[in-house]
Design goal:
CATH topology of chain C: SH3 type barrels
Strand content of chain B: 5-15%
CATH class of one domain in chain B: Alpha Beta
CATH superfamily of chain C: Ferrous iron transport protein A (FeoA)
Chains: A mainly alpha (about 45), B alpha/beta (about 700), C alpha+beta (about 90)
Radius of gyration of chain B: 30 Å
CATH superfamily of one domain in chain B: P-loop containing nucleotide triphosphate hydrolases
Helix content of chain C: 10-25%
Largest sheet of chain C: 6 strands, antiparallel
Strand content of chain C: 35-45%
Helix content of chain B: 55-70%
Structural class of chain B: alpha/beta
Strand order of the largest sheet of chain C: 1-6-2-3-4-5
Order of helices and strands of chain C: EEHEEEHE
Number of strands of chain B: 12
CATH architecture of chain C: Roll
Oligomer: heterotrimer
Distance between the termini of chain B: 83 Å
CATH architecture of one domain in chain B: 3-Layer(aba) Sandwich
Number of domains of chain C: 1
Number of strands of chain C: 6
């Protein structure tokens, strides 16, 4: 196997694995992360 | 307001009711496989929604709400039910109609929730479930009278047999679903206050009145709920409550008593109980909760469960193991020699494989847990064990989750969902990994063999037993500390309902088992795959220069994992370890049993025959010497290592499942830090105390 | 309706001291307000009949029958439930 291709593929997989966790952490920050009942009653709705 | 069946909009129906009344059976019977299970955002409550078709073929959406005893909520589950019914949750629109499932053999208490549901003003249909059980217990119900008193249709149903379901569908398919004809009476003073408060709420009067009632009923500790409302509403509520109290009325108690008075009158008219002797369930309980027999039966049942788990999982585990090896070898054989090949064959596949191999045990455990739940025996187990659990500040319901963790922490932690009190639940989840699980056994076996070369099987069994007991003691101690400090709850009550024994439905148990296992595989699989790749990379890179002929052992020792091991050495030297053990610790972060394989690599043990390798590894490790000639694996070190593995959290699947069950990464991280520190301290103590006591 | 004050019944004992299989009628609940509220919602209202069914093998908790179903409570909780013997 072409050694450069080999290195690229492996690096890509490793980076994807890392990105997986980073993205999960970021997504959590955006959404509700407090583990509590985050639904404020929608009192503004008529 | 009547709910009109519109050709363009789909009707949304919610199924509500007490726990244990057969809601889910009705839900499953109506929706079959056309259901989807997800999560409500922000809470670990299952969102079960499905589709069914009415009598005229029109599609309707059905949501199975978590069971609750009252709309005055005491747990996150109950909060979700209340919120969906009030139209507050994003995942579900406010229902167009409600099916209130009522246990016919237990009418009085079930009708309490019905009273609250009627107050909501939504079109309601009562599904009177388990009428066959009621009849058998000598309960005769006058349906016409009941319908008249309640003001809503009442449909007798036997969900497990399917009787009454067509009639239920028909009732829900009517073009116009009428709102309840009458509502339960309430003290005039409360009604007046509620109407006044409702005017202050920014929603339509129809929605505002039930909301106002709920607000008025909030008592001291639940007043934090008010924090979500606007300040003027909070003030109006507090003022109204004060006025009521000054008039000598406790809003919630007054409402409860009014509702039960209504229920008493109603039942007096419509329900006739012919006295029967002891029910079958009661007679069974006399044995199963007996002072002596009860305990024996319980121990037998638990022993049987574990026996089944271990024996029936052996063969499938072996096959999976073979399959994983085969896949790994196939890749090695068919891909050109490269890093990519190694990543897949030595990293990804074994990594995922080491977790998948426990799937049979997980499945069987889920199966038994489902049986226990469905049959009603789970409640008895909690009943009998509550005394012991309370001694360390836990709940009787914590027993089964913790016991299950001896088979595998994953189903055990998931079983903790039945614990209503969030703090109790959290403590249970945090200590679950301390229950010795099968993954620790390979490590224990190896280290005990190194520790006691010529010892009899009895000595080894003795050491093993003390490790099991040690785990339990550590868990109890930790729970006790938690309850005294961080997780203090103001006297949570037991309040455990003991439902009548029921024949568990094999079909729904198997369905639930598959559903839970699949969720685990999906969730854990992705995380574990990613982490396996990363851990492989740590041990594989940097590569030694291709020209030098380096043993596998030397290669791993200069990899990142190896460097981590070296770097860690100061931290683990107080425990008696060296950097080679350090590498083992690093690699077994994901899965404990990996330690053995890693040690084999580090100590250059070749050979596929596991048994040979095991013996030679043991001998090699025992012969290993430090720079100054003293042995590495002295008895103190072995015991220290055993204690470390007994206490540390080294299981990716567990971490993932805790994340899912607590809906955050915070708690898994806390758990890792906590248990690792505990392991370190334990190993440290054992190592040094061993020194003082004169052990080598 | 005033539900705080105990009714003026002379003999009012704790639910936890009933004999096995003995019945009683609840007179009042001597507990913190949220516990009292929760128990009442579960059917343990003043005037309701209860029956002590059994004690757990280890002595605690107890199983009672109220409003047609079985509920288990800790002795500590049951102590606050005052009943008149029937």
């Amino acid at each position: 196997m072409n050694p450069i291709l080999d290195q690229l593929l492996v690096a890509a997989l490793i980076l994807t694995a890392l990105a997986f966790f980073v993205l999960r952490a970021l997504r959590r920050k955006k959404g509700c992360n407090c583990g509590c009942d985050c639904t404020a009653p929608k009192l503004k709705k008529p | 307001m009547n709910a009109v069946l519109n050709a363009t909009s789909i009707r949304h129906i919610a199924i509500a009711g007490n726990p244990n009344c057969g809601k889910s059976t009705i839900f499953n019977a109506l929706t079959g496989l056309r259901q989807k299970v997800g999560n409500y955002s922000g809470v670990t409550v299952e969102h079960k929604v499905g589709r069914f078709y009415g009598s005229h073929g029109e599609a309707m959406s059905l949501v199975d709400l978590p069971g609750n005893y009252s709309l005055q909520v005491r747990s996150p589950d109950e909060a979700v039910s209340r919120d969906v019914l009030l139209g507050r949750r994003l995942e579900e629109p406010r229902p167009d109609a409600v099916v209130a499932v009522v246990d016919a053999a237990n009418l009085e208490r079930n009708l309490y929730l019905v009273a609250q549901l009627l107050d909501l003003g939504l079109p309601t249909v009562i599904a009177l479930n388990m009428v066959d059980m009621a009849e058998r217990n000598g309960i005769r119900i006058d349906l016409a009278a009941l319908e008249e008193e309640l003001g809503v249709p009442v449909i007798p149903v036997v969900a497990t047999k399917g009787t009454g379901l067509p009639q239920l569908k028909q009732a829900l398919s009517r073009t116009q679903l009428p709102a309840p004809a009458k509502t339960p009476p309430m003290p005039a003073i409360i009604e007046t206050e509620a109407r006044t408060l409702a005017k202050a709420l920014p929603m339509t009067p129809k929605l505002a009145f039930p909301e106002a009632l709920l607000l008025l009923s909030l008592h001291d500790r639940a007043l934090e709920d008010l924090a979500e409302y606007k300040p003027d509403i909070v003030q109006a509520t507090l003022d109204a409550q004060k006025r009521l109290r000054d008039a000598g009325v406790d809003p919630l108690c007054a409402l409860v008593e009014a509702r039960y008075e209504w229920i008493d009158r109603l039942c007096h008219r419509a329900v006739h109980q012919t006295a029967t002797g002891l029910t079958f369930s009661d007679r069974l309980d006399q044995v199963l909760t007996h002072r002596i027999w009860g305990g024996l039966c319980f121990l037998t049942a638990m022993a049987l469960m574990f026996f089944c788990i271990f024996t029936f999982s052996q063969a499938p585990m072996h096959w999976i193991d073979l399959g994983v090896h085969w896949a790994s070898n196939w890749i090695s054989g068919h891909l050109p020699e490269s890093n990519l090949r190694d990543l897949i064959a030595d990293g990804a596949i074994p990594g995922v494989g080491s977790v998948t191999v426990f799937l049979p045990q997980i499945l069987i455990l889920y199966f038994f847990l489902g049986l226990l739940e469905d049959s009603g025996y789970m409640a008895r187990a909690a009943f009998m064990m509550d005394r012991i659990m309370s001694a360390v500040g836990l709940h009787g319901k914590s027993f089964i989750p913790l016991l299950s963790s001896f088979g595998c922490a994953v189903p055990g932690i998931m079983a903790a969902r039945t614990i209503e009190n969030p703090k109790d639940r959290l403590v249970t989840i945090l200590i679950a990994p301390l229950m010795t699980c099968p993954a620790r056994l390979p490590v224990y076996t190896l280290m005990i063999a190194v520790l006691t070369p010529g010892a009899s099987a009895w000595t080894r069994a003795g050491i093993l037993l003390s490790l099991y007991v040690g785990g339990i003691v550590a868990a109890a101690a930790l729970a006790w500390v938690f309850k005294k400090t961080v997780m203090r709850t103001e006297k949570s009550m037991l309040l455990l309902e003991l439902p009548p024994y029921r024949m568990p439905s094999l079909r729904s148990t198997v369905l639930r088992m598959v559903e839970r296992a699949w969720t685990f595989v999906k969730q854990a699989g992705t995380v574990i795959l990613a982490l396996s790749i990363l851990l492989w990379a740590l041990a594989a890179f940097p590569k030694p220069p291709a020209s030098a002929h380096v043993t596998a052992s030397a290669a791993i020792s200069q990899s990142y994992a190896g460097r981590l091991g070296h770097w860690m050495e100061p931290v683990i030297r107080p425990l008696g370890y060296d950097w080679k053990i350090g590498i083992g610790l690093v690699s077994s972060f994901a899965a404990r049993e990996v330690f053995v394989g890693t040690m084999a690599i580090v100590y250059n043990v070749e050979g596929d025959a596991k048994a040979e390798a095991a013996t030679s590894l043991r001998d090699i490790m025992r012969a290993e010497r430090r720079a100054d000639g003293t042995p590495v694996f002295t008895p103190r070190v072995c015991v220290s290592l055993l204690v470390f593995y007994a206490l540390a959290l080294q299981c990716l699947s567990t971490i993932v499942i805790v994340h899912r069950e607590t809906n955050s990464w915070r708690w898994p991280l806390i758990q890792i830090v906590l248990l690792t520190s505990l392991a370190w301290l334990g190993a440290f103590a054992v190592f040094h105390v061993g020194g003082w006591l004169g052990f080598l | 309706m005033d539900s705080f004050a105990p009714t003026s019944r002379p003999v009012s004992i704790a639910l936890s001291v009933l004999d096995v299989r003995q019945k009683g009628q609840i007179t009042h609940l001597d507990l913190p307000s949220d516990q009292r509220a929760r128990l009442m919602e579960m059917g343990l209202t003043p005037g309701a009949n209860v029956q002590l069914i059994r004690f757990a093998p280890l002595g605690d908790p107890i199983e009672i029958e109220v409003r047609g179903y079985r509920l288990s409570l800790r002795k500590r909780e049951a102590e606050g439930i005052r009943v008149a013997c029937l």
